[in-house]
Each structure stands twice: as C-alpha cells, then as structure tokens.
Amino acid sequence: MLHDPHSLAAMAETLASSGEYRILRRLVPRSEFADSQGAAVKTGILLDVETTGLDHTRDEIIELAMVKFDYLPDGTVVRAGATFNAFNEPSRPIPPEIVELTGITDDIVAGHRIDADAVAAFAEGAVIVIAHNAGFDRKFAERYWPLFAKKAWGCSQSEIDWRKHGFDGTRLGYLLAGAGFFHQAHRAIDDCHALLEVLAFELPETGKSALAALLDRARRKTMRVWAEQSPFDLKDELKRRGYRWSDGTDGRPKSWYIDVDEGQETAEIEFLRSTIYLREVDPRVQAFGAMNRFSTRA
C-alpha cells in the first residue's frame, strides 16, 4: 500500500506530540543546515576509515570517507559540502570478521588505490578534522597521509559528555537515535553524514549544537599525568580516581595515567604524592592540544 508522504509526516507529528511515542525518521543527508547571514565560515572535515584490524602499525586501510562542512565559530553547522570516498586494496585478504562488520570484500577493493594527491587536495583549507573515534582514525590517517599530522583534530565520541546531555551511550547509532533519526547503512560515507546530523543537533542542556560542545573541548589544552612504577596494590585506588592503563605496546609508557584539564595537574600530582607514592615525586606530565591529541606523536 502506498502512503502519501505528507500524510505519513502528519501521522508522525501526531504520534510524537502525544508524548506516548518516540518517532525516528530515516536519515536523508542534507546540504543546508543554517543561514550564515553573510558571516565568515570555517571548513571542517568528518573522516572515517575502515581497516583490516585495530593495529595502526600493521593493519591497513581499506576505505577512506570524508565529508566537508562549513560552520560558524560558535559551532553552528551551516552546510554540508563535497564528499570523498575511495577504496584501497590491502596486501593480504580482508579477514572474515572485517568483511562481516563492514560489508567490504576483496572483490570490492580489488585494484583500488587511494590517490594521495586527491586526499591532499580535498583536505586543503580544512581547519579541523573530526572522527567519531579519533584515537583510532587519526593514527591510521597520519600513517598513510602525513598531511593529517598538521591538522587540528576533534573526537565526537570522547570530547562531548553525551550522557550528561541525556544520551544512552556514545555509539553513533545511539546518538543518531537521540537526535531523532536512524540509518541502516554501515558504509563509512554514510556514517560521516550521520555524524554531521548528530553534530548539528541542539543539546537541550546548553541550547547550542553538539559541535559547539566539541569545539569548546578541543580548543582547551589537556595534561596527561603518568603514575609510573606505582605500587601494584594501589591500582584500584588509581582506577577509582579515573586513571587508565597503558600496556606499553604502542610506544607509550607501561603505566597508569590520567588526562585532566590544564590547571588541574597540580592537584593530580599532589594526589600521587600523598596517596600513591607517599613521598615527593615529579611524575611525567605531557601537554596535549588539538594538533597532537589522538596522534601517534603523543
């Protein structure tokens, strides 16, 4: 049975306004989001890679997707721009679990190579690159295309306190549902379009876009404090404090560490001295900003 789209929209509006139903609409990528009213805009890139595995030093990229977008300095998304989508044939067959996860097969990528010059031309002029798991995507992107080491990066998964804003989790599907949409595709370019819709969503706590919250966080400096050679029997104390474990396999110290806003590292050092080491110590402290956060160079 065919339904008039206007009638479907009216029914959805009636159900939603009743307060008894929650309506999700299929995501249809759009180009226009807000009127810039002649104000100068900045250009960003949403980036997603599909790979043969999780190890950025050995595994390979099999797909790169990017979507350009313009935004105002206050975080208002103005419009979506050009897209970039390309496959890359790896040196070994794609593992079955990756095929199942991404839908990308050896036949799809056969004979494909991602043109580095095309990537550079696309990224020209972008002031920030955003990925939904920048700690993963940035490391792969920098290994293949060093130009990404010279860009500021933001992470839409970790640099927005989604739970504080009423979302059930940080997975892209959860966030898209919270913004009132669903999408069934799991291609990298589709995820980029979904992420743009999520970033344009107005957070009820602030009345500003999710992108505004991300930019505010990305612009701030963070300090990483390492608790190297801390007593093993105090690991639970560190975990309760919010410390995370680095196993040392990626070149970082094998140690507990915590990331705090600039200015809070003094209190963290005092905690380590008074609670963990019980003596005067000068722990390793690193500073991070959008230019090196999530990078292998960190």
What characteristics describe this protein?
10 helices; alpha/beta; 298 residues; four-stranded antiparallel beta sheet; Nucleotidyltransferase, domain 5; 11 strands
How many alpha or pi helices? 10
Low-confidence segments, given as residue ranges, are none
Percent range for β-strand residues = 15-25%
Euclidean distance between termini CA atoms: 57 Å
β-strand number: 11
- Main sheet record: 5 strands, mixed
Please indicate the count of domains: 2
Description:
- The chain has 298 residues and is α/β, with parallel strands linked by helices.
- It folds into two domains: 24-219, 2-Layer Sandwich (Nucleotidyltransferase, domain 5), CATH 3.30.420.10; 222-288.
- 31% of the residues lie in helices and 22% in strands.
- It has helices at 5-17, 96-102, 106-109, 116-123, 134-144, 172-178, 188-200, 210-219, 235-241, 265-277; strands at residues 25-26, 42-51, 61-71, 77-87, 128-131, 152-155, 181-182, 222-227, 244-247, 254-261, 285-288.
- The strands form three sheets. The chain has a five-stranded mixed sheet, with helices on both faces. It has a four-stranded antiparallel sheet with strand order 9-10-8-11, covered by helices on one side.
- The N and C termini lie far apart (57 Å).
- The mean pLDDT is 93.
